Amino acid sequence: MTPKRALLIVLDSVGIGHAPDAAAFGDQGADTVGHILERHPDTALPHLRTCGLDAARALAAGLTTPETRNLSPQWAYGALTEQSPGKDTTIGHWEIAGAPVDRPLATFDRFPESVVERLEQLTGQTFLGNIARSGTTILEELGAEHLSTGEPILYTSADSVMQIAAHTDRIPVDQLHEICRLARPLADELRIGRVIARPFTGEPGAFQRTADRRDFSLKPPPTILSALTDAGIPVISVGKIADIFAGQGISLSHPTHSNAEGMETIDRLWIESDLEDRLLIIANLVDFDMLYGHRRDPAGYARALEAFDIWLGDLIGLISDDDLVMITADHGNDPTWTGTDHTRERVPWLVHAPGLSGSLGVRDSFCDIAATLAAWFSLPAWPHGNPALT
Question: What's 129's domain CATH number?
Fold first, then answer.
């Protein structure tokens, strides 16, 4: 049997230009990579460019023949357009895995008092906040009061999330995770995508969120991940992938705390999988979004892209002619944009596969990734999306 390894890397929030319906989301003109490169034109991304990033950006911008711009990527490249109505992590990843949704997940400016009362009954806690804020702002506003009272901070954002923050000196991380786990059934009833535990440390004026964040997610519809595991093909996740899919379709999970740890883990797993017949490694690298997109830090974002590019150069040397490797993103998060939320953008689709090259065009759905995985592993045709492979 010919080895059938596959690697899928999701660069969290690395969008390449506003989607056709971006105006409906307040994001007309957003362009995560483009605006970063405008602010920091010396950003060195030679390996991403070799794999087709510039060509994918040209497609996203409506230039259907990017070859005329002297672009000569060595991988196949395309631009993916999200089908599902949203721009959050959960539905972005679900659609990548072949499960588009037809209505947005629930969002709130604040949770109804009846919901908070039930949450307090479920967890035995009294909560501060219940407002929509960014993660750093909420700590500035309520962190000191939390330290005084010990009451965890409840908040949300533009995404479909219920977030609960607590200082590790007042509520240990394991206890905070348990509070969020108890909240998950209530969030299921409300169709909230994620309950997120947000531990933090430090003193007033210098609070720092820790890397022990944990996402408790709504269970997804059937995905290519579950189809693969049902077919006996291991799916190994890196980063927060297992959390995003509520463990569904995941054979083994490797949580990580940073892009650097994620890339190190991918390296180790990829080298160890060299003799595997059939295997999918799926990874999320979250620092782009969490540390630089939401915090509107284009300089930090540029440095993170450069660090990934350096690592990618080494990974390319480990990819054989018989491997499938795909690099994409789940949404945008333009660090030059207004507010602190995600941006509705097309995302890159950079593909290494035997016999595949040139433009894959502008695609109508992230589901094309799932369809490609189904074709690669000789599963029945996926019901959503169009594969890059025949």
Answer: 3.30.70.1250
Cβ(363)–Cβ(348) under 8 Å? no
Which residues in 94-115 are b (16+ Cβ under 10 Å) and which e?
bbbbbbbbeeebebbeebeeeb
242 and 365 co-located in one domain: yes
Rounded to 10 deg, the angle between the 259-272 and 298-316 helix axes is: 10
Please state the length of the chain.
Answer: 390
| Residue 90's CATH number | 3.40.720.10
Instruction: Compute the distance between CA of residue 289 and CA of residue 269 in angstroms, rounded to an integer.
Output: 24
Token pair belonging to 250: 């995941």
Contact between residue 333 and residue 35 where contact means Cβ atoms under 8 Å apart: no
* pLDDT, tens digit (0-9, with 9 covering 90-100), for 216-272: 999 999 999 999 999 999 999 999 999 999 999 999 999 999 999 999 999 999 999
Helix, strand, or coil here: 254?
Answer: strand
d(CA 208, CA 261): 19
Cα–Cα dist 373/48, whole Å = 22
- On whether both 161 and 222 belong to a single domain, the answer is no
Backbone angles phi, psi at 266, to 5 degrees: -60, -45
Do 153 and 147 touch, CB atoms closer than 8 A? no
Does one domain contain both 363 and 261?
yes
> What is the structure's pLDDT at 59?
95
Query: Same domain for 153 and 22?
Result: no
**Which residues form the domain of 270?**
4-102+218-376
**Alpha-carbon gap, residue 210 to 187, rounded angstroms:** 24
Is 284 in a helix, a strand, or coil? Answer: strand
Give the global pTM. 0.91
Check if the beta carbon of residue 232 is closer than 8 Å to that of residue 251: no
- In this structure, what is the dihedral angle of CA atoms 331, 55, 75, 88, given to the nearest 10 degrees? 0
Same-domain check for residues 241 and 364: yes
Q: Are residues 121 and 89 in the same domain?
A: no
Does residue 354 share a domain with residue 243?
yes
Q: What is the DSSP letter of 125?
A: -
* Number of domains composing the chain: 2
